[in-house]
Amino acid sequence: MEFVTAIVSSAYQFGDAFAFLVLSACGLAVIFGMMGVINLAHGEFIMCGAYMTVFAVNWGLPLPLAILCGSLFAGLVGMIIERVVVRRLYARPLDSILATWGVSLIASQGTLILFGPTMRGVGTPLGSFMVGALSFSYYRLVLIATALAVLLLLYLVFNKTRFGVLARATIQAPHMANALGVDTNRVYAFTFGIGAALAGLTGGIYAPTMTMIPTMGTTFIMEAFVTVVVGGADVFLGTAPAAALLAVVKASLTSWQGQLAGQIGLLLAVILVIRLLPKGITGFILKDRA
Amino acid sequence: MGRGPAFWSAFVVVLAFALAYPLFADGYDVGNNIYFLNWTFMALGLSLIWGYGGSLSFGQTAFFGVAGYSYGILTINFGTAYGFGLLSVLIAIAIAALFAAVLGYFLFFGRISGIFLGIVTLSVTLALERFMAQTAGPQWTIGSARLNGFNGMSGMPPLTLPWFGGEISLYPDIGLYYLVLCLLVVVYLGLRILVNSKFGNILVALRENPQRAEMLGYDIRKYQLGGFVIGAALAGLSGVLYTSWGQYITPSNMSITAAALPIIWVAVGGRSDITATLIGTLVVLSAFQALTIYGSQYALVVMGLLLVFTVLLAPKGLIANAGILLGSLLDRKNGGK
């Protein structure tokens, strides 16, 4: 029984870390992979989704619908920001980092002014179950399932739908796609919207487990950066394996030495990985294939 | 920007004003205004790394914090007698530079550039902030210095110089003002010499086209690393000056908001010119302080807007653009004569 408990406990911690990394990073990775833009306002989209979710719950919507609402709202805000700011900067990726950083400052401080330093959140639903002497939260299992579902959904969207074909065409050869009648601006806007909506989903689904403060996005942002840097440009070939690899590092170090050791371990892992594989895991896998 | 007799006479006039300023002002005000000068070193370092070398480093505040904390730990433990105050300043800056050298080795020799460089340096900064923020417990002491977690470390002695027949402690007052001003002039002129030297030219060359610079036989990684370390040492100098000035440093000096501020000063000023950076930093900082009277969250919103507008409308920087405009006006006048 001891043995089973230990196995379940490690699997649970790994799954939790994996879900956290995938969900933190996927929005950022979609935008980076498609457009080469690192969105420093990523954390604020997460915050935006979380706040909207809590508002919706307070208005009386059930939690899953509220999370959907938060996600759509963040996606909408993302499309507006793409239209107003990011679109002018596609030729200058470094400047788009700066601009989104400015947006991030405005958003987090604006939220602080509008809603105050903290807000009443919603409780974690679903309760817990016991394996041996340890108790586990059902909600964490929902998070793990969501992470897998998001990966699957992204795969289907980008590989099986018309939009996915247009989006991939736009990444590979923007001018060619444009010449063949693809409205590349719309594709960029939608992609940015999807990235922001995924960030909003992350915010919404983690909202019941966190304190609602305007800077809550920064909890996610380091993990998101690290995963995207290790992963490289492709969501499926990069982000997912990177999240799995880093989840092992994070879960084992966290259970050994605590939360902070997990984060520092992540950072050391990323510095090591970029020294060895500058293009991330994506580059490694593609080189093997070629 | 910044050549010819017109510029240098303006430089002398500004310097004369800066030197004469304490004669007309209260010692307390002068002491407070050192605050602005303290930050300029970090901004100048960032201008060197980013504007001249083309490597976007978001980690300046990490080096700032490392040097600030090192200074605190050293002086709290060993005091400032026998010139150790000055020595600990140098050691603190050296620790920041060493940290930058190790980090830079992995980054530049892994040929990380552009966006990833920014993200990794920012991640390092955030990790440092989280690390320092959780050092609240009594087990986190180094010698007799308590790191004190999120509340920050305080109680370190002010900057102390050895002098004939005893040392002088420089509390925020006129003496410290002159010292910092003097340092600033030295660093500014030193950086001007540096960016116009062969080293500076190669930095600009590799910013413009890394492959070409490499083909011409320069190991660009070494030059990038060199620029990065110099910039980090300058950020460390800012950190030490800030810590000894306020006798206080907290992890929030390394937060994501704090990390954004130097970027904003340098971007708004004009990153590819140290004169524009210097003017921009002082102007933006004073504006920020003036706005903070109405609440720092409003001031930060204005800073965010300023950054977005600068990037969209004047990517070279507002002060640099103003300088270019001024220069072309002067030229037209001269041409008309």
From TrEMBL, chain A:
It is found in: Cell membrane. Keywords: Amino-acid transport, Cell membrane, Membrane, Transmembrane, Transmembrane helix, Transport. It comes from the Bacteria. InterPro entries: ABC_transp_permease (IPR001851), BCAA_transport_permease (IPR052157). It is a multi-pass membrane protein. The keyword Cell wall biogenesis/degradation does not apply. Coiled coil: none annotated. Signal peptide: none annotated. The chain crosses the membrane at residues 12-33, 65-86, 98-118, 138-158, 188-208, 220-248, 260-277. The keyword Transport applies. PANTHER family: ABC TRANSPORTER PERMEASE PROTEIN, BRANCHED-CHAIN AMINO ACID TRANSPORT SYSTEM PERMEASE PROTEIN LIVH. Belongs to the binding-protein-dependent transport system permease family. LivHM subfamily. This is Branched-chain amino acid transport system permease protein. It comes from Aminobacter niigataensis. The lineage of its organism: Bacteria, Pseudomonadati, Pseudomonadota, Alphaproteobacteria, Hyphomicrobiales.
